[in-house]
Amino acid sequence: MRHLVEENRLHVRDLVLPVFVNSGNNIQKKISSMPGVSQWSVDASLKFVESAYKKGIRTFILFGVVDEKDKDSKGSAAWSATGPVPRALELYKKHFPESLLMADACFCEYTDHGHCGETADTSTKALDWHRDIGATLKNIAKAALVYAEAGADIIAPSAAMDGMVGAIREALDASKFSDRAICSYAVKYASAFYGPFRDAAGSAPLPGTDRRNYQMQPSNRREALREALLDVNEGADMLLVKPGLPYLDILREVRNTVEIPVGAYQVSGEYAMIKAAAANGWLSEDAVFAESLLGLKRAGATFIISYWAERAAELIQEGRI
Ligand code: PBG
Question: Which residues contact 70 (CB under 8 A, 6 or more apart)?
């Protein structure tokens, strides 16, 4: 009876699985701060994606990782047509035509300073990193076109800089890609929960600098609504709120404010905390992840990006979530 009258339910199609792809061959590199998560070369990633696909997961979000030698101050490897993300997009579309592919579009994995755009100040000592927003918007449009050409269904700009959604929409519509969607990381807090991701993607900002001049202040609530509405007006098709669990109030409020779908991102630090506690026998992994994902759903998430998506799909199949 509890199941019959349950108000919220997780479905396997709610889940989005992140995939880290690098530019090597035949590589699986385990991420020590995210047990169970790996960085893959494009060829080796196929079996990881296939395994999740067989369990019903259809949506994947791709993050590219490149060698240090391929990084520069603009992050130009982000728009290389032979980079790991375009190659992975082509490969997955060929093998899994029914998949829905999101390309995370950002620069921190590709810049030598580790910031999410081109810098106007190359001083490595700059505490307050200065964006060259005009150049960054041109660059993000170039990257979006490369991902669209390679088969991305959804472009997901994650730098949280104003103007990105508009720049991408304009570029897609001016090419043959007006059918591609934009999922904006509109409400992205300057969070300490992203630490393990930066190990996985090799994208930490220069020591002594942080992302506070483009990511939001954790104490702000009304600003989240403003950010969400700005991106709706620029043409976003769906939004993300990030991180997840510490921001459930924001998720609910954004969901109540905009009419487009709102996804939640259960970020790397949330994943690592549960994994670490479970490894110590302090928490039950399955039960705590299931409760966390349901919490995001209850708070209004239309879909959820989670590193735990594959295990969640198994539990859903077994009727245990
Ligand atoms: C940035 C990006 C980040 C995440 C996704 N895209 C990290 C950041 O802003 O430093 C974090 C995801 C996570 O922690 O799981 N391009």
Answer: 23, 77, 110
Residue nearest to atom 7 of ligand 1 (CA): 194
Q: Which atom of ligand 1 is nearest to the CA of 116?
A: 16
DSSP 12: G
Rg of the chain, C-alpha, whole Å:
19
pLDDT < 70 positions in the chain: 121-130
Handedness of CA 237, 242, 244, 245 (dihedral sign): negative
Q: State phi, psi for 270 to the nearest 5 degrees.
A: -65, -45
For residue 111, what pLDDT is reported?
A: 93
Q: How far is CA 11 from the centre of its chain?
A: 20
Do the Cβ atoms of 181 and 123 come closer than 8 Å?
A: no
Per-residue pLDDT tens for 61-111? 999 999 999 999 899 999 999 999 999 999 999 999 999 999 999 999 999
Instruction: Identify which of 147, 187, 194 to mutate to test ligand 1's pocket (most ligand atoms within 8 A of the CB).
Output: 194
Write out the catalytic residue numbers. 188, 242
The residues, any chain, with a CB within 8 Å of residue 53's CB and separated by 6 or more, are 96, 99
